[in-house]
Amino acid sequence: MRMYDIIMKKRNGGELSKEEIDFFIEQYTKDDIPDYQVSALMMAIYFQKMTEAETLALTMAMAKSGDMLDLSAIEGIKVDKHSTGGVGDKTTLALTPMVAACGIPVAKMSGRGLGHTGGTIDKLESFEGFSTGISTEQFVENVNEIGIAIMGQTADLAPADKKLYALRDVTATVDNMSLIASSIMSKKLAAGADAIVLDVKTGSGAFMKTEEDSFALAKEMVQIGNNAGRKTIAVISDMDQPLGMAVGNALEVEEAIATLRGEGPADFTKLVMTLGVQMLIAGGKACDEEEAGKMLEGVIADGSALKKLAQFVEAQGGNPAAVYDTSLLPKASIVREIKAPATGYINRITCDEIGICSLMLGGGRETKESEIDLAVGLVLQKKMGDFVKEGDALALIHANDEAKCEAATKRFLQAYTITDANIQKLPLIRGILK
């Protein structure tokens, strides 16, 4: 089999066989095929697209290019959750203790943030001493004992995807639905869960800016998961403005804790409940949405979801006292109001700009080597559709550097559009695909 023939076949619109896809992924992972040939194939795929069968074959080949996590030692149906990312997306922090408290084992791999979207691991490190650097044996033991564990992605998880993505990033071939879907799902399938619930974002703060593209990506990923024998559900949710009120690592942890006490923002609580309902159904713990919803409300009301978070934090070396006393979380030295420059309705929030403000304060990474300031960020006071008077607080900015605070404040004000006319707000949940 020759790479040249595979490139030409795809360039001419042919459908690649599973054997051809397996060959190129295996050989490229071993460095036996040069970047320039794989670049040519990626460009051919970009223009000619991939069939459902090709996309599944590519996903499975990438998933099998490294370690396939074996979770068979964990009792029960393992349900994983994945978000396509966004601003203020602290969903894992509240969702996983809730579903674990309902009896769904949570064995999750998460990553660090790069750019303006914070990573789950960074947020969890707001708990002093917390570590995701645990062995696979400890990971499995923690899930069996307390129902939840989160570890960092291993270097050997879908290594072909890491190589391909780095190449696509510099050859203008990222923006292809099959390649995006297979990249995400290869890691999810390698992580070993029995069922997968996807949170696919749409809007200005999302990777997919339009609802049409978000639904197309969700459909592609659900097809891949179901074709691979994993029950897969996608929830399409809004990211035209930050999720909840808090943006920044420790601030988001505090908001997730408030949500577990039943005191979280309405939009964030609704998303967590929606995803939790689907996870309970996928895991066989509830027959329908009504039953699942009541179970989730129950673990918040009786405090068992909050207790589950504390158990999880302690099991991975963190200080569980911070779950009950959030003053123990990292705090910024500067907290001040960002005031509305005009009177009117908030017509638009350029969502990714709010994420960049947090990045400017030190709450995100410009490069992989960047040090994160866990204490900084923003807590919004007003969101889209709200009426404000000139001088009202739009947000509280949390900073540890005056110059960064000043620069982020100016950028923040440019992200808000205030007009005389109110807007029609779109729903948070745009749809659910199974």
Q: What's the total helix number?
A: 17
Which bin fits the share of residues in helices? 40-55%
Element string (H = helix, E = strand): HHHHEHEHHEHHEHEEHHHHHEEHEEEHEE
Structural class: alpha/beta
Instruction: Please report the total strand number as a whole number.
Output: 13
Contiguous low-pLDDT stretches (5 residues minimum) are none
Largest sheet: 4 strands, mixed
- Enumerate the strands of the largest sheet in spatial order, edge to edge or round the barrel: 1-4-5-13
Q: What's the end-to-end separation, in Å?
A: 37 Å
* Overall 3D shape: globular
How much is the radius of gyration in Å? Answer: 22 Å
Average pLDDT rating: 93
Strand content: 15-25%
Describe the SSE topology.
Elements: H1 3-11, H2 18-29, H3 35-48, H4 52-63, E1 79-83, H5 91-101, E2 106-110, H6 120-124, H7 136-146, E3 148-152, H8 159-169, H9 177-190, E4 195-202, H10 211-227, E5 231-238, E6 246-247, H11 249-260, H12 266-282, H13 289-301, H14 304-315, H15 321-324, E7 334-339, E8 344-349, H16 351-361, E9 377-380, E10 387-388, E11 393-399, H17 402-415, E12 416-419, E13 429-433
Parallel strand pairs: 1-4, 2-3, 4-5
Antiparallel strand pairs: 5-13, 6-9, 7-11, 8-10, 8-12, 9-11
